[in-house]
Design a protein that fits this description.
The chain has about 230 residues and is α/β, with parallel strands linked by helices. The protein has 2 domains: about 150 residues, Rossmann fold (3-Layer(aba) Sandwich); about 70 residues, Putative phosphatase, domain 2 (DNA polymerase, domain 1, Orthogonal Bundle). Helix content is about 45%, strand content about 10%. The chain is built from 10 helices and 6 strands, in the order βαααααβαβαβαββαα. It has a 6-stranded parallel beta sheet with strand order 3-2-1-4-5-6, sandwiched between helices. Helix 1 crosses helix 4, helix 3 packs across helix 4 and helix 4 runs parallel beside helix 6. The longest helix is centred in the middle third of the chain and has 19 residues. It is globular, with a radius of gyration of 17 Å. The mean pLDDT is about 95.
Length: about 230
């Protein structure tokens, strides 16, 4: 079977393209402690892949006496400051794979639950034209694990979700992408993706190319299987 590239590759951002999870955790801990609470690593892991408003409500439950929008704005501003100060902490192989997909003519979208202003900061710091489109947390009609953000990205790109491939690092993100109908690659970082429903799990994107993405997509896409039936 000849491998074919998907019509678009849809990238999660935090934990998938860039390893910003430690930045988020570094912002969460002092925020909880400011209100006399404690914030453990295990509690922080609960927020991986969640929409920011859902995360803010969990932080409220940990004692943060601030409104949800204020919590979101505070955390986002602190993480953006760290990005500007320290640069983009790319996950191994992510930048190279993104560049290879772009060189191969594949359309790409960034589909993240972070706020648009933060996603735009990441895109601006890439150093090349990495994405055709951003769908951010303040764009999505419902957050991951609902499929809305992925469906919105496909609509904006004018592609069938079944013709796309998504890359995710969290169980909620995987469920969102699978629910949208995309062939879904899981690349775990801080939490296990076993049982989340990804079509394949890779330990890393290091050394991976557009041809690897084509092979994965071809192996799992209903479209390509039907074409070769």
């Amino acid at each position: 079977m000849t491998s074919v590239l998907p019509s678009a590759v849809l990238w999660d951002m935090d934990g998938t393209l860039v390893d910003t999870e430690p930045y988020w955790m570094a912002a969460e801990t002092p925020l909880v402690e400011r209100f006399g609470g404690t914030w453990t690593h295990e509690q922080a892991l609960q927020l991986v892949g969640l929409g920011l408003e859902d995360s803010a409500r969990i932080l409220q439950g940990a004692g943060v006496r601030m409104a949800v929008p204020e919590i979101v704005d505070t955390l986002t501003a602190q993480v953006m400051d760290q990005l500007r100060e320290k640069g983009l902490p790319f996950r191994p192989g992510a930048r190279e794979l993104l560049a290879d997909l772009r060189a191969a003519g594949v359309r790409t979208a960034l589909v993240t639950m972070s706020m648009r202003r933060m996603a735009q900061t990441v895109v601006d710091l890439l150093g090349f034209e990495g994405f055709d489109l951003i769908v951010a947390g303040d764009d999505a009609t419902r957050p991951k694990p609902f499929p809305d953000a992925y469906l919105q990205a496909c609509t904006a790109l004018g592609v069938d979700p079944a013709s796309t491939l998504a890359i995710e690092d969290s169980p909620g993100g995987v469920r969102a992408a699978v629910g949208a109908g995309a062939v879904t690659l899981g690349v775990p970082l801080m939490v296990s993706l076993t049982g989340a429903g990804a079509h394949e799990l890779w330990p890393s994107l290091a050394g991976r190319t557009a041809q690897d993405i084509a092979a994965l997509y071809t192996a799992h896409s209903p479209r390509t299987r039907e074409d070769h039936a």
